[in-house]
Write a structure and sequence with these properties.
The protein has 13 helices and 13 strands. By secondary structure, the chain is α/β, with parallel strands linked by helices. Strand 3 and strand 4 form a beta hairpin. The structure holds guanosine-5'-diphosphate (GDP).
Amino acid sequence: MHPRDQTIFALSSGRPPSAIAIIRVSGPMAESVVLALAGKIPVPRMAIRALLRDSDRQPIDDAVVLWFPGPASATGEDVAEFHVHGGRAVLAAMLSALDAFENVRAAEPGEFTRRAFENGKLDLTEAEALDDLIHADTDRQRRQALRQLKGLLGDRARDWRERIIAASALIEAGIDFSDEGDVPAELIAPALARIKSLHDEIQKALAAQGQSERLRDGLVVAIAGPPNVGKSTLINQLARREVAIVSPHAGTTRDVIEVQLDLDGYPVTVIDTAGIRETDDPVEQEGVRRARARAAEADLVLWLADREDGSAVHQGAAPVWLVHNKIDLDAGGPTEQGEGGVRPEFRISAARGDGLSELIRALVDFAQEYFGTSDGALIGRARQRKLLQETVESLSRCMQVVGQGEELAAEELRRAAHSLGRLLGRVDVEDILDVIFREFCVGK
Ligand code: GDP
């Protein structure tokens, strides 16, 4: 049996142990599985309580069971959900009981969503949004994913695609006429007007977006400067004040290299370049390697300086803010002007906390500018932006070549429609789908 026709199962809830764990089963065998384990089939979409038993009739757990016959289910196939106690042994017994059925196997990452996509329950932008929603750490990430999940981009793209196909029909009609002689200009003119307005609309949507697709990855801020100016002190202060999401790389002699902050809903990763140092520990080396690579691509650099070192200049592509630290030591000295004539943009005491609110406020403003006003954000991923750009380019080439022949124009319109089709996942090659769905969690 083809893997696609097999019935799949997975633990869809979080890591055990937990109070309750949810195991989902999807595919043609789901009904037999429920009958064998629970002894009965629940009324569709109504929870029942059942003692689940394995093939030797030995009890596994007292559970809640839900039955969603296809096609009105999340995947479009028959789906069952078992809500069991979330202990490791319970789950091990459940999973091995499921595995014992013929043509039933553990699901690959993202396989439930892939089936939903293949059964027309979601378009590709919605499938991507589902993944983004699961991985959203901040409120703005969540809101953007939810908008996408409602089909914000998918609906627009479908509309654009239909209008391109309609314009295409007008041009094709012109081509048919041209077999008989001249192409009537009255057929081309309305098609051109439609293409122009479509072009402008998509172009506008692209321009209005800022970097909203980068909301997934977050803004990267590197804290740099000479030794002992207080870089680590600052990163620790930021982590303490704002909602720190995770601190993935803990060194041995330093507390933190990198923290992820939730700044007013914007995901911001702050990297302490002082923590980036040579180490023999292989685990730490990997953290150091990653932090170094990310710092090199920082979107903003906070160059920390103290009184002796106000003039240091960081070279790089990203904007640099000069942050004058240890103002508590200044005792009213003439330090408004940094040495070498560089005016400090911020004056803080990382140790005491002075000036930190202003710095954080400025970071939030920077993030807002950087991501764009994401409340209308249409684009959630670089893939989507690229395909919309391709669509605009094809439409603009179409307008250029229409005078040279309708066939050329019609070809460009086909390309534009194809790009939007790929955006929606209507036309695409398997390997692209594989890449997208591989990023998903197992059980999703
Ligand atoms: P790094 O090498 O740049 O990471 O610097 P650290 O954060 O390790 O700080 C170096 C020293 O400066 C430590 O002894 C800190 O306690 C001290 N320090 C950091 N910030 C301040 C500050 O705002 N005021 C004062 N007085 N000392 C500070």
